[in-house]
Amino acid sequence: MTEMNTETGIETGAGAKAADTLSCAAIQMTSSADLRDNLKRAAGLVGEAAARGASLVVLPEMFAFIGERQRDQLGVREAAGGGPIRDFLSEQAARHGVWLVGGTLPVESPDRDRAWAVSPLMDASGAAVAAYRKIHLFDVDLPEHGQSYRESSTFKPGADAVVADTPFGRVGLSVCYDLRFPEMFRLLSDMGADIIAMPSAFTAATGAAHWEPLVRARAIENQACVIAANQTGRHANGKSTYGHSCIVDCWGVVRAGVSKGEGVAVAEVDLERQRQLRRSFPCLDHRVFSVGDAA
After folding, report:
1. Catalytically active residues, by annotation
2. Range of 145's domain?
3. What is the β-pairing status of strands 225-230 and 245-248?
4. For position 281, what pLDDT does the model report?
């Protein structure tokens, strides 16, 4: 029996025909404090991804704006109902007929001094069908690099994992620092995620050590495609991000990537092979412990 998701209008369930392949893209940017210029460059990169055949496109975290100070993000925060950045994402998705994960943008929260870091998912008509509020906030010190981060001073953490129905399968939404918390991805897996979108602004220091191993681990252990779109280069705040955006399949193979500089990684992922792997190598079914067992 086919079920209809009332929010997205997409058929799901036993009667729905699952896609056999997915052409997807991870966009890499060096975002600045110039909102208009960032949107212009993002538009060109989304257009390139679409021209290369991508149906699902992921932008990096903070794609629209990275200021000199973290709290500058509050200057471009938008109302929950939308604003210029959200309108841009809707227009780009509709123009190119792609599903678009809009990196992150700051959205008003009940806390006047903090915003939510929201990762929206737009369908191919430009409608917003899901939004994830970043849960894990980057509050760390890197003394050997002379760097300190306090993301929670600007952003309010979200509380809910989000998985959305698409024509390609169920897409789980995550952002950057979430990558270090495997229990969150187990939860996305329990919620039926086939594909995981991961907009990021992973630092150059931590990225060189951990970025690819962690992205590949999340793909392998959850037998899911991971689309990891990262920031790259030096930003207005004087800090550098790692780049190396990539698309990793369910076996942990990097199918496409961009090392440094702005660009687009595009890959075709074999979703039927992923389903076959889950049947023949059913480690997700062999789990003894579930998320929350240790509580």
Report:
1. 61, 134, 176
2. 22-280
3. antiparallel
4. 97
